[in-house]
Design brief:
By secondary structure, this protein is α/β, with parallel strands linked by helices. It contains 20 helices and 21 strands. The protein is 33% helix and 18% strand. The longest helix has 18 residues.
Length: 519
């Protein structure tokens, strides 16, 4: 019996980042047993019992000597049962039961059942994407997950029916496995959103034309929005319909959004191509919004699950101040940096943030159209809105005031109310206009453009057109960040109008939409 070290490929996920793991197995002249080393978690450490039983049930028992299994690199924490298949195949190769010619060039992803069956591990799509980036020639996955892995182009997918099928492929036998070809995936029109896109439409919104147009501007440029208004004014209705006017995701963004959705353990039959929508409750913790986990694993938060879509915080002042302020850095960088004692990783967080708030605790402040007067004192109103910190609100591009609709509008049907499809066509045209202008830059939408470009030779507007925001900046009514954000919104208004560049009117409108004291 050969006592050489045998290796099988695997992938360790930390968030969406993948690391190539070589599962090493060696036999030593000791009493029968198995040890797994290399910082496994509890589920992974229990693999030795699953592997020994599954191999016996599959008719290829392991050696009757001691097996040492090392997960290299040994200083990287590993978690989950997705390494079961790689451990079993490396152990069988070390036991002399399996040829090892293709073990190291294949990423093996699968959990073993005691009967030798294979199950899909959580995060399989993300692991397949990582395997391609890490240079593996192919992935071997459970048969039930073959279609999901094949959504990733440019990597061979072997779908094994069970452990016996995986052994048969490595042994060059034809039964128990199949190759799954990549095909252009059917598109999922709903994405991971809880709302069915076909069931809601912007045409449902009554009597809020200014707010609808502001959301179109936000969608065209990828801008953040806040809405202030009394209960029943339609803030939630407007926010939930923002994804319906956003364009379909690009192939790259679609793969990212799908990989994030797959981390939750739900199998995907198709790629997500519509922007996701997340609306956490105001009792959510910072970890549930930002993401985190224990010292060995990272779980994405709502801001990552909403990547390339919309994160809606209803009743925003009711969220803990620490949760809201934790959003400040990712709104600028569009990534979340997770630091723990034993790991460090980053998660994507390219979102459109939508905040909704009442004007005061009772919700009736400044609403002359309500029969109930505001019962809050001035200091209560100020303290309530001050729960949204200045640095956070400074990062909001469009600040809208939404009022209750008149009873005269109820029961009417206005044919002129635009549908989501019509508004989305305008947004798509505006984004194409912006993409053509930004083709030589690393950005594709206006919200991503750096201030140095906006104020530099390529994007600088004439002083006559920016005079209103220049004055606001000079007297301290605008910060430098706010100045740049007004310019970005002005470019989005210009793109919607099909103009080459914004003029004085677009800049003034952008400043008005910001709700600044300068306006």
């Amino acid at each position: 019996m050969s006592r050489e070290v045998r290796r099988a490929g695997g992938v360790a996920l930390t968030g969406l980042d993948g690391t190539a793991v070589m599962v090493e197995a060696a036999v030593s002249q000791q009493l029968p047993g198995m040890a797994i080393i290399g910082l496994p978690d509890t589920a992974l450490a229990e693999a030795k019992l699953r592997v020994r039983t599954a191999t016996a049930q599959s008719g290829v028992p392991l050696t009757d000597r001691f097996l040492t299994v090392n997960l290299s690199p040994a200083d990287l924490p590993k978690q989950g049962s997705g390494f079961d298949l790689a451990i079993a195949l490396a152990a069988l190769a070390a036991s002399g039961r399996l040829p090892d010619g293709r073990l190291t060039e294949t990423a093996h992803l699968g959990e073993l059942g005691l009967d030798g069956g294979l199950r899909r591990p959580a995060g399989l799509l993300a692991a397949t994407v990582a395997a391609r980036a890490l240079g593996f020639r192919r992935v071997m996955v459970p048969e039930e997950a073959g279609g999901e892995a094949a959504l990733v182009p440019d990597i061979e997918v072997i779908a094994a029916r069970d452990l016996a099928g995986a052994i048969a492929w490595h042994a060059g036998e034809p039964d128990g496995w199949r190759t799954v070809a990549h095909e252009a995936p059917a598109l999922d029109p709903q994405g991971p959103s809880r709302e069915a896109v076909a069931a809601i439409d912007m045409a449902d919104v009554i009597g809020q034309p200014e707010a609808v147009e502001a959301l179109v501007i936000a969608a065209a440029g990828g801008h953040h929005v806040s809405m202030l208004g009394p209960p029943g004014a339609g803030k939630t209705m407007l926010a939930s319909r923002l994804p319906t006017i956003l364009p379909d995701l690009s192939p790259e963004d679609s793969l990212t959004a799908s990989s994030i959705a797959a981390l939750g353990g739900v199998p995907l039959a198709t790629l997500v191509h519509r922007p996701p929508f997340e609306a956490p409750h105001h009792t959510a913790s910072a970890v549930s919004i930002i993401g985190g986990g224990d010292g060995a694993s990272v779980r994405p938060g709502a801001i990552t699950r909403a990547c390339h879509g919309v994160l809606f915080l209803d009743e925003a002042p009711e969220f803990p101040r620490s949760v809201l302020d934790a959003l400040r850095q990712p709104l600028e960088s569009r990534v979340i940096e997770i630091h723990r004692a034993r790991l460090r990783t980053s998660l994507p967080a390219s979102i459109q943030l939508v905040l909704a708030a009442n004007p005061c605790p009772c919700g009736n402040a400044g609403s002359p159209d309500t029969a109930e007067e505001c019962r809050c004192s001035p200091i209560m109103r100020v303290r309530y809105l001050q729960r949204l910190s200045g640095p956070l609100t400074d990062r909001i591009d469009l600040r809208l005031t939404v009022r209750r609709i008149s009873s005269v509008l109820l029961g009417t049907h206005d044919e002129s109310r635009p549908s989501s499809a019509a508004l989305r066509a305008r947004v798509v045209a505006a984004r194409r206009h912006a993409a053509a202008r930004l083709a030589s830059t690393p950005w594709s939408v206006n919200a991503q453009v750096h201030g140095t470009w906006l104020r530099g030779p390529a994007g600088r507007l004439p002083r006559a057109d920016t005079a209103v925001i220049d004055r606001a900046l000079a007297r301290g009514a605008l910060t430098m960040r706010g100045y740049d954000r007004v310019l970005r919104v002005a470019w989005s208004i210009s793109d919607l109008a099909g103009r080459e560049r914004p003029g004085r009117g677009e800049v003034a409108q952008a400043l008005l939409l910001r709700g600044s004291d300068a306006s």
